[in-house]
Amino acid sequence: MSSVAIGIDIGGTNTKIGVVNREGKLLQHTSIETTSYEMVEDYFRGMANAIRELLVKMEGAPALVGVGVGAANGNYYTGTIDRSTNLRWKHSIPLAKMFQDEFKVPSLITNDANAAALGEMVYGNAKTMKDFVMITLGTGLGSGFVCNGSLLNGHNGIAGELGHTTVNPNGRYCNCGKRGCLETYVSATGIRRTVYKLLADHLEDSELRGISFDDLNTKMITDAALRGDLVAKLCFDYTGRILGMKLADTVVHTDPEAIFLFGGLAQAGELIFAPTIKSMEENLMPLFRGKVKVLPSGLQNQAAPILGASSLIWDHSENQKKV
Amino acid sequence: MSSVAIGIDIGGTNTKIGVVNREGKLLQHTSIETTSYEMVEDYFRGMANAIRELLVKMEGAPALVGVGVGAANGNYYTGTIDRSTNLRWKHSIPLAKMFQDEFKVPSLITNDANAAALGEMVYGNAKTMKDFVMITLGTGLGSGFVCNGSLLNGHNGIAGELGHTTVNPNGRYCNCGKRGCLETYVSATGIRRTVYKLLADHLEDSELRGISFDDLNTKMITDAALRGDLVAKLCFDYTGRILGMKLADTVVHTDPEAIFLFGGLAQAGELIFAPTIKSMEENLMPLFRGKVKVLPSGLQNQAAPILGASSLIWDHSENQKKV
Description:
The structure is a homodimer of 323-residue chains.
Chain A: E1 3-10, E2 14-21, E3 26-33, H1 40-57, E4 63-71, E5 74-75, E6 80-81, H2 95-103, E7 107-110, H3 112-123, E8 132-137, E9 141-147, E10 150-151, H4 188-201, H5 218-226, H6 230-254, E11 258-262, H7 270-283, E12 293-296, H8 304-322
Parallel strand pairs in A: 1-4, 4-7, 8-11, 11-12
Antiparallel strand pairs in A: 1-2, 2-3, 5-6, 8-9, 9-10
Helix pairs in contact in A: 3-8, 4-6, 5-6, 6-7
C-alpha cells in the first residue's frame, strides 16, 4: 500500500489542497474559496470535506501519513496561525490540532515561505544543499532559511521574515505598520509602486502610462520591458538593486550556498536576476563575493506551495526515523 | 585524572593562551606577542612552547583533550585562517592541522565571535538558550549565531559577519573594501569616528575637543558621557540607533531569544543598551516586538575569548559522544 501526504496552501483568496506522494508527485488536487466562509469552523469543515473527496478518488486506498499546511503567519512550534495578515480570523487558530483530531495523523504548519524552502529541499533544486535561502515573491516577500540541512524555525517559530527588513526607515508604508520594508519595494505589489514612482519621476513615454494602478500586474511590466519600454526596464533595475543590496546583508548572516527566487516576479528571468546579482555582488563583503548562487526555484509554480506544505510531513517522518 | 582543553585567542597584537577545565575555569594562562614573529612557523613554535610550559605547571598531569582557536577569518570547516585582516601572514594558514600534528589531539578553529558565542553557551548566560546571537564589539564588530542549539557555520564556514552588513552604501570607508559597513559605526573604532563627526557637526563645548583621534578611546567617551558631556551622550545615541536598526534586521532573519553584547563598548552599560533597545524595537516588525532580549555577555571580558576558543573542544567532544 502506498503512502501519501496532504499539502494545503492557505491563501487569502483561495485554499489549495493536494495529495502528494513521497516523490513529490501531485496525485490529486482541488481548491476552495477561503473568503466564502464566515466562521473558521466552517472553513475547516470545508477543507476536511475536500480532503476526504480527494482521498476517495485515489486508487488502492493509500495510507495518509499526515497533513502539512503552509500559511502566512503559520507557527511551526504551536501549530497555530496567529495574527493573520490575510485571513478574516485574527485570533490564534489551532489548525494543526484540528487536523490531527479529524484525521488521526500528524499535522504540521509553517509559514508559506518555509514550506516552499522545504519543498525545494525535498523535491526541487536544493536536494543536495544543506544551506540555502528561499525568497518567495508574491503579493508580499516571504523567506525561508535552511541551515545545516534543517529548516530554521527560531526561538518563537517565526524566523525568516526578510520582507520586513528595512530598506529605508522613512520609506514606503508597509502593511505590517512599519515604513520602508523590503516587501514594499520587492514583490508584485512593490514593483507596481515602483512603476508609479518612476512614471512620476521620468518624462519618457511608456505603455504603462495607459494602465491604472489597480489594473497593473507583474506580467504587463515584464512584457513592456521585453518590448524595450524604458520605464519598465528601469523598474526591474530599481527592484533588483534593492533586492541585491538586502540579499548581501542576508548572505553575511547565514553564509548560504544559494538563494532561490520563486514566484511571479522571479518569472521575469534575466530582467530581475541580472540586476539583483550585480547589486548583491557589489554590496557583498569581498570574502563572500562569487560564492553565492542566485537561482530560480525548481518547483513548478502552481503546485509548489502544496508540494512544500506536504514536504513538512515527509521531512518530519524521516527525521522521526533517524531518532 | 582531570581533563583540560587549550583555548587560544589570536589577536593582531597579542595571542592569549589558556588552560581551561570543563567547568570553564581558566586554570593557567599566558600570552605571546603576535607581531614579534616574522615567519608563521616561528609563531606556531612560540604558541606550542607556551602551551607546553603551561601544561608542565599543572598539578596532577591533566589529560589534554584538544586545542581550540578563535581568530578573525578562522574557518571551522577547513581549520585554516584565510586572508587574515589583522595578521601579517595573508596566505591560508592550516593551523588546526599544525596543532593536531604537534599535540596528537583534535584541534578546531573558528572566528573569534563564533568562539565567544560558544563560550556564552557552554559557560555563560546562554546555557539554557538554543537560539541567540553574540555581538562582539572590539576594534571591529564580530558576530556569532547559535540556532537550534548549534553554532551556525554556513556553507563556506564563514557565517555571521554582521559587521559587514550595510548601513549606508555611500557611508564610511571600511577595511573590507566596502563603504558604510556596520562596524564603521558600531565598534571601538566606529564610535571614535562618530565623536569626530559630531564634533564637526555641533557647536557645543566638549571635553573630547581636547583629545586627538589617535588618543581617543571608548572609556574616555563613556566617562565624558557619564559626566554629562553632550557630544559624548549624542555619540552613544547615534551608535545605539544604528546598531538597533541593524539588529532589527537580524532578528527577522533568525528569530533569536536574545542578543548578547560583548566587549569594551558593551561595558558602557545603559549608555549603549538603552538607545540600542529603543531603536531595535522601533525598527522591528511588530510581530517580533517585545520578544527579544538584548543582554550583556556573562563572560568575564578578559578571559572570554580564551574560554570561547576552549569551548570549541568541549562542544565537539560532547557532540561526538552523542553520535
